[in-house]
């Protein structure tokens, strides 16, 4: 993947407004297009200004590049902008945070779109224009959101010109979506989503109509998959697949992918096979549910469900303990009194619930002794390579989640990346990684005499 | 510890020169700027004489204090506040009484100051912030001894009692006050739902209010620097009272279309309207800020408030005028009409400027008349600056239909045939061109722009009362 140091993200609201005499008439489409044309003129006019968030920097991109800060000129590299930005912790962005063991990806520079209302072209005093025909007055805020990936030495001026072009293109895309989904005077707000696609496409933006579920946008995605030459068996462009900007916090408070902060064990001749995509860490005591001692398999199941949700396969929320239990009753696996109990579940139940609630099928792998797990390197490596889903493993009296293996085909040496649902503390990444609640374990981790069942969820073949 | 009012010496001269008829009172306004630490008074204007109408008002109470025409004083205050650029406002009132009435003067002043404040803020599109000073000054002058008694009332609290305040004279208080300027492009599309004229007013107010919020939230640069925080407006400047150079600081305003009520919508807001109104053009704005270590954001606030006030005032004046011209037909007509444009003139004494609004068929003579009446000062016509806003290119009377897809070039329509617009009905003899109750009128009987035409003014007021101009 091409190294990209920066993502410049420009956001702003532009109000779309038009007056329609007859929303169902033939004229209305051209009236709507004219309004979009006016908005495109607005963003190419001299009046637009980019402000860099948390900084005194203002840039006028359409006046041959002017900025409010003398040292930033057309020739400046875009990285120069960093010295002007105050980061939230008060220090300059150059001081590295000691918490992150690894670099967390490109630096995001957030910008906001503004319009200057001073320095007008003329100075004719205002008039009042009154129209008294019956009209439908349409107003809609367009949530513009453009992102550009660039390297440090890219010129700031080029970035700004690129952002103006992106605004123009986004308005054209929005016009298309608005016209396509309009019914009379009912207009759907066009919403932009960013997706990080494999190179060479990189960071792209797609506009979807608000309120239309992903299931109804299949044809749109098929076109885009063809256009960007994406595999046709896994989702890349569902709303849940939207790119998560490195500087944005997750509103639900769960940790994402704590494993990326760990260094894999250094085993000679071994390769790394990891879960693909994003999951949330679910564990004991979360969501005000005291499941200490009995809920570990439920939590592992929740982690797996979170994976399917965040990869865009399902839109339903991660199920609660009660919902999981109800699902088992619904499929006839358990009696109704199971709901509300503190009974354990195993891999078979996990498989059943994934099928019932998410429509996901899973393979079950049976291991008669814990010591045998060390020999399952190839199967697990294959699983992570093709499916890349988290694996739930239950045996003895414990359940865990396997997120990956380091395995040598030659020597057979193996290590397991384990996410432990038995953790009862808060969402403290430092503790979780230091104390091994997410950590690499050797084959001795398993109860050598107990038998184990593994549930290996399979990706549905869909986009 | 009370407030301190630093007052220009020329104001003192004006106050000493006031003539009160024996046994009667003189009321008037005090204008200037308040800051958290101290207040500045740069202008004093006595309440203009109001010709009484046919019915002679019998003296109501036992004292001339009761005869003070509160309505008239508040109207004068409103007219004057429209003439003040940003940063300046009506700070209080003065009252000259004969010695025997001095005791009761305080009550009279209290009544007046609350009434004035209430009337001035009516229709205003911005709210006072936490930091705004809500103390207003009342100055009592004894006509015999010339003794001054200065007190303040907190107009936020109707139960507040008078607090003592200092009244200090100084020369050239505002001579070095920086002046912020900008010209702002306004283009507001306002849908009109319903068909009555009340609806039109309400829709207009709502539309303007939304725009005002945008301006208040806007990003502001003053003299090239951000005006956000507590940083000083002019850093590193030595305060030199001897210098009379007034700095002009250009302001730049940047808005975003973010509207919280449209927020997280998934579909467009569609209203069925009986029509729409569009306010379009450029307004020239000014604000002054004191030079006692002013903060950048207070300066930004002052210029933003001026932007909002100037658009609001013109629209108000225009709609009031329309009320007389069209009566109940207002809001049903089509057309493009010029809003009154802003002109500036030097203020008496302080070297600051005041403004006024000129309808298209008025001249600087009319403006001069109004300045004389409202601000009690003679202004040579050549000193009135009409160059800051250009005259609109068509007359107030022409009307023509405008369709959906109107293009931007309004000058093309000047040569349009003046459409017969039967809906605009002029009242038989008079029509008002101007604002508020005390306006400049084109006087029917003598067909001249006498503003005001004193010999006919009583009849005009009767007409205005009929048209329900008084609220």
UniProtKB/TrEMBL annotation, chain A:
Which species is the source of this protein?
Cyprinus carpio carpio
Q: Which InterPro entries does this UniProt record tie to the protein?
A: UFSP1/2_DUB_cat (IPR012462), UFSP2-like_2nd (IPR049387)
Highest taxon, organism lineage: Eukaryota
Q: Tell me the ranges covered by the UFSP1/2/DUB catalytic domain, including all copies.
A: 272-455
Question: Which UniProt keywords are listed?
Answer: Hydrolase, Protease, Thiol protease, Ubl conjugation pathway
Q: Which residues form the UFSP2 second domain?
A: 33-250
Signal peptide interval: none
Q: Name one GO biological process term.
A: proteolysis
Membrane as UniProt keyword: no
| Pfam families to which the protein is assigned, alphabetical | Peptidase_C78, UfSP2_N
The record's similarity note reads:
Belongs to the peptidase C78 family.
Its name, as the record gives it, is: Ufm1-specific protease 2
UniProtKB/TrEMBL annotation, chain B:
Top-rank taxon, per record: Eukaryota
Q: Which GO terms describe its biological process?
A: intracellular protein localization
Please state the protein's primary subcellular location. Answer: membrane
Where does it localize?
Answer: Membrane
Keyword Methyltransferase present in the record's keywords: the answer is no
Q: Which UniProt keywords apply?
A: Membrane, Transmembrane, Transmembrane helix
Q: Which Pfam families match?
A: ODR4-like (PF14778)
Task: Tell me yes or no: is Transmembrane helix among this UniProt entry's keywords.
Answer: yes
Q: Which GO terms describe its cellular component?
A: endomembrane system; membrane
Identify its protein family: Belongs to the ODR-4 family.
What is the protein's known function? Answer: May play a role in the trafficking of a subset of G-protein coupled receptors.
- Name used for this protein in its record: Protein odr-4 homolog
| Gene source species | Cyprinus carpio carpio
